[in-house]
Structures are given as C-alpha cells and as structure tokens.
Design goal:
about 325 residues, alpha+beta, Dna Topoisomerase Vi A Subunit, Chain: A, domain 2, 3 domains, 12 helices, about 20% strand, globular, binds zinc ion
C-alpha cells in the first residue's frame, strides 16, 4: 500500500461498508459541490487495488476520479481528497510524492498497464436488490415476477446467496438475456463485460459472455489480507470462494501477468475433467501451486463442492491439499487422475 492510497483510505467517512465486488461505499461527499443534493444512500464508491490504484465513483452526481501509481495526481483526485477532508497542504505534499514516483522509479515505468474498455450492460439492467424490492412489493408484471422467481430458485438450487456478488437482471430479450442471471465483469470499478447464465431449463447455450481477451474475473474483489489467491475456471467457482476466474480452462499471457502481479501464492483449483488437466500443466510451468481437494466423485468443480459442503469447508479442503512443487503435483495427479 502506498502513501496516497493509505491517506485516502484513512480519511473516508466513518459510516461505510464493503460490497461483495470490492467497493467501499459511503455517503458521497462530492454531490453538494456539483449542484446535486447531499447523498444519503451511500452512493459513493471507492475501489483500491494491490498495485496502488484508487478509483472513486459517485453513482449520484456522476463525479469520478482515479489515481494510478506512477502517474500524476489528477485535478479531480485532488478535488475528491479535499471533499473527504484531507487538508490542502497534505494534498500538495502527496501530489509532489506522486510526481517523484512518476519521474524517479523505473520499476513503474517498465510496468505495462493492462486496461480493458468499458462496456454497457443489456438494456434496463439493475442489481438484484432493485428487482427484489419490486418482487417483494409485488411491483412487477406477471412475466417479470415469474422470471425473478425462477432466478431466485436457481440461485437457491445452487446454494449461492443472492448477496454473494453484484448479481443483476435485465428483461432484455436479445440473446435471451431475460432468461439469464447477469454477472457483471468489473475492472477497477468499471464494467468491462458480463456473462449471463441461463437460469431456466433450456437447450440454448448455458452462458452468453461478453469478455475481452486477457480479462481475469473478480480481481476487484480480492481481499488484500489474504496471502494467496485461488484461481478457478468458472465465475461461480470464483464467487463462492472469493477467488478469481480465468473464464475458461486455459490461461493466456495477460491473465498470467495479472495474476502474478498480485504478488501472492497462486493456488489453482482445476475442474475435474480433461481440460482441467491442461490447466495443471500450465500451473506447474508457471511455478504456481495446485490443490487436490478430496471431494466426492460427483463434485465437478468448486461451486458444486460449495453446494455440497459449504464455503468454509471447501476453502479449508483447498488449502489443506495444496501442493507447491512440480514433483508432488505430478504425484498427486497420478493418484487422483
Ligand atoms: Zn456525488
């Protein structure tokens, strides 16, 4: 953690909470400066990353600011720091500090900044709690009510809490989105894609996904006190154990760079099928660890396991069976393969 990130974190309003996708939300301090009424619904959101990045978004007046380590402190970021009560002379000192890092440190200059383009979600997409409010208040059309009901039953059948992620829903019929549970893909607080999982019985494609090459799902939600990061294949696997997902069974160069960039022990939990074996090969090549949890034969992946055993047990069984050397990984995969 750097000085700028740290100063901002310790200066945030006291009454704040953390959302499952990694936002720290609090009453936005910016709106009154931008011609809007004061926010009372915690619509200010701050996101920090292990690499020192800080992004602020106001979902009330639309004010945005961000700081990326190795770059100058922008005017907007300085404004935001003023809004949360950081004294002017401290801001000035931090701005000089940011400039020093920009000029002096070759380490940051060499680092490639991976970015993803912002994307818009399907028409009329809202977070699940917005739909739930209407569902409870009976404020939906009969068709919408049936869909939300089906979606909730689907989550329940998989043993996934509606509040485990910023799940969303849209009644849009393009790509049968209205039959899908939407999982937005965040990158530093911005939506850069999504996947929609069919929640109704259907012979249509299970996942409709809009993803950019190199993207790693759930990076924003990583808990920086953990010494490890769990790498899984599917988005539900990542959500259930607060890991990341490579959204497939093969890791590309950008994904490898992003995951290595977290600077923590990487533990791969492959699906128990043939492509999962390829993932084990990649993991050993990268010097990553692999877990061989002893789950029932009917369990195919992490989210199946969570459904059967619960989150805590699954996390423990992953950590207890993690192997770090190539020799042991090869031995274990022969035993269980
Ligand atoms: Zn605002």
């Amino acid at each position: 953690m750097n000085l700028i990130q740290n100063t901002i974190l310790t200066s945030l309003p006291a009454n704040r909470k953390k959302t499952p996708s990694g936002w720290i939300s609090f009453n936005a301090p910016c709106c009154v400066y931008n011609g809007e009424t004061a926010d009372k619904k915690k619509r200010g959101g701050l996101m920090t990353s292990a690499d020192g990045t800080v992004s602020y978004h106001c979902f009330n007046c639309g004010f945005k600011a961000s700081y990326v380590i190795g770059r100058k402190l922008t005017y907007k970021m300085r404004q935001f720091m003023g809004y949360i009560g950081i004294p002017e002379d401290t801001i000035r000192k931090l701005a000089i500090e940011a400039m020093r890092e920009e000029e002096g440190d070759v380490k940051y200059e060499k680092k490639k900044f991976v970015t993803f383009k912002n994307k818009t979600l399907p028409k009329d997409t809202h977070k699940l709690d917005v739909w739930l409010e209407k569902y409870v208040a009976n404020d939906l059309t009969e068709q919408q009510w049936k869909k939300i009901d089906g979606l909730l039953k689907y989550l329940e059948s998989r043993g996934i809490g509606a509040d485990w992620y910023d799940f969303m829903y849209s009644p849009d019929k393009v790509w049968d989105v209205n039959q899908r549970l939407l999982i937005p893909f965040y990158w530093r607080g911005e939506v850069v894609g999504f996947t929609g999982r069919m929640f109704e019985q259907s012979d249509k494609v299970k996942y409709y996904t809009d993803v950019q090459p190199g993207y790693v799902f759930n990076m924003d939600a990583q808990d920086w006190t953990r010494k490890f990061v769990i790498v899984t294949e599917g988005p539900f696997d990542a959500i259930t154990v607060s890991g990341v997902s490579i959204l497939g069974s093969e890791i590309n160069d950008t994904q490898r760079e992003l995951i290595d960039g977290l600077g923590r022990q990487v533990i791969v939990v492959p699906d128990r099928d043939a492509p999962g074996q390829k993932l084990v090969d990649q993991a050993t090549e990268f010097g990553w660890s692999v877990a061989f949890p002893e789950w029932d034969k009917t369990v195919g992946d992490v989210s199946d396991a969570v459904q059967k055993y619960g989150r805590l047990f699954v996390l423990q069984s992953i950590l207890k069976t993690t192997e770090t050397t190539k020799l042991k990984i090869d031995l274990k995969r022969k035993m269980y393969g």
